Amino acid sequence: MDRSQKADAVAQLNAVFNEVSVVVVTRNLGMTVAQSTALRLKMRDAGATYKVAKNRLANLALENTDYVGISDMLTGPVGLAWSTDPVAAAKAAVEFAKTNDKLEIVGGSMGSVVLDEAGIRALASMPSLDELRAKLIGLVNAPATKIAQVVTAPAAKVARVFAAYADKAA
Fold first, then answer.
1. 116-126 pLDDT, tens per residue?
2. What percent of the chain is modeled with pLDDT above 70?
3. Are 83 and 21 contacting, i.e. CB atoms less than 8 angstroms apart?
4. Could you give the number of structural domains in the chain?
5. Residue 81 clears pLDDT 90, i.e. is over it
6. Is residue 19 domain-shared with residue 52, that is, in the same domain?
7. Would you call 61 exposed, middle or buried from its count of C-beta atoms within 10 A (0-12, 13-18, 19+)?
8. Which Pfam families does the record match to this protein (predicted)?
9. 35 and 91, same structural domain?
10. In terms of domains, do 78 and 108 share one?
11. Could you please report the per-residue DSSP string of 56-110?
């Protein structure tokens, strides 16, 4: 990797750090190519991205961002996962680490708040942004549905009474 490629990599990572909501730092303990590919696919399905970056370049990219606090975690063979959804990257990394002992969750950051491994696991247990939206819509729709049922119930009862009288008369 020559100097211009390194500068491009730092600029791309810096742009990522300025756009995302969460960054998760993982340690790769000898994953195979197939396992790395599976992790990347799982991340992509969750709406997150996983990348192995050189620690020195990642530290340069962290400068002047909210994520500068995670620079101490960048030692050894690390990978970075990030997403705009505050939960997606953490959830995908933790789920993959449960089934693969070669991926270790080191920590991460949510904006300027630095999280340790327990913090990332707690973040992963929270519902995602889409799940929260679905719950909110369900809560908003529930009263409207109940009102519609209450309003139509008397009319349905009257219709049943008339139907019963009609059956009785016939």
1. 989 999 888 88
2. 91
3. yes
4. 2
5. yes
6. yes
7. buried
8. Ribosomal_L10 (PF00466)
9. yes
10. yes
11. HHHHHHHTTSGGGGGGGG--SSEEEEEESSTTHHHHHHHHHHHH-TTEEEEEEEE
CA dihedral 84, 87, 88, 94 (to 10 degrees): 140
User: Is 9 within 8 Å of 57 (Cβ atoms)?
Assistant: yes
**157, amino acid identity:** K
pLDDT digits (tens, 9 = 90+) for 44-62: 998 999 999 899 999 999 8
**Interval 139-155: pLDDT, tens:** 777 776 766 666 676 76
**Amino acid occupying residue 130:** D
Q: How far apart are the first and last CA of the chain?
A: 92
Q: Residue type for 102, please?
A: K
How many CA atoms are closer than 13 Å to the CA of 58, on its beta-carbon side? 22
Length of the chain as a residue count = 170
